[in-house]
Amino acid sequence: MAEKKKHNIVSASSGQAAKPAAGKKPTVQQAAPVGNATGLRIGAIVLWVLAIAFEVLAILVVLGKVNFSFIPSIWQLIILLVLDLACVIIGAQLWKKANHIKPASEKNPLTFWLWNNMGVIVCVVAFLPIIIILLTNKDLDKKTKAIATVVAVIALLIGGLASYDWNPVSEEQQQAAIQAIDGNVYWAPFGKVYHTHEDCGALNHTDTLTEGSVEQAIAAGRTRLCSFCAKRDDITGVVTDDRDVGENVVENETPTEQNSDTDVDPAA
Known about the structure:
Layout: E1 8-11, E2 17-19, H1 37-62, H2 73-101, H3 109-116, H4 118-136, H5 142-163, H6 171-180, E3 185-187, E4 193-194, E5 208-212, H7 214-219, E6 224-225, H8 227-233, H9 255-264
Parallel strand pairs: 1-5, 4-6
Antiparallel strand pairs: 1-2, 3-5
């Protein structure tokens, strides 16, 4: 039987190594604090308002109402669109972080969907109007029109993908995990999964872990429990990395074979 890998465990509260691996100098990193959801939402809204303001300026440039004469028109549009995109994406990250700290309830499906897709909605509002104006404007020269339209469409696609929450969590899911799990959990630098056991086989390729509460794990974007840890602890009713606990677990499958990619792949 393969020997279990020893990890450097970092506390989510203090950022200090709690259980350094024997014979190794522990890697200490400051884990992201849970934070304040209200403050994050206010920050997101401010950035989104700025994004719309940059879009309005870009529209005025297209219509010839505003002109920064020291900069060519095409560069004016590109700069404004890039600033628009930056505000959209940063605002969306703050909003998603707030949603992980204080999730919306699934009791009202429409509200839950809107709350978790607000970043995408704002992204569409921040780029679709100017794309339509660029396509329908007959006074803009063809080269500027073509380049600006392509940049705006690419910005819309990038902003939409970056703003979408690929791992949303609900208030009910968060509370179920808090009630079902007693004690701290562990998570790797990458991935979307947290673990109840430091020696889980899915963590064999990870040198440093973060230790903290379930709330801290979810706030850090680790919204699902490792299915093998769930089975090991006989935890039910909690969303796991590949299925709800208790459904079609393969008895002969090893944790390393199924879960290691989730925790080591930066693209996960």
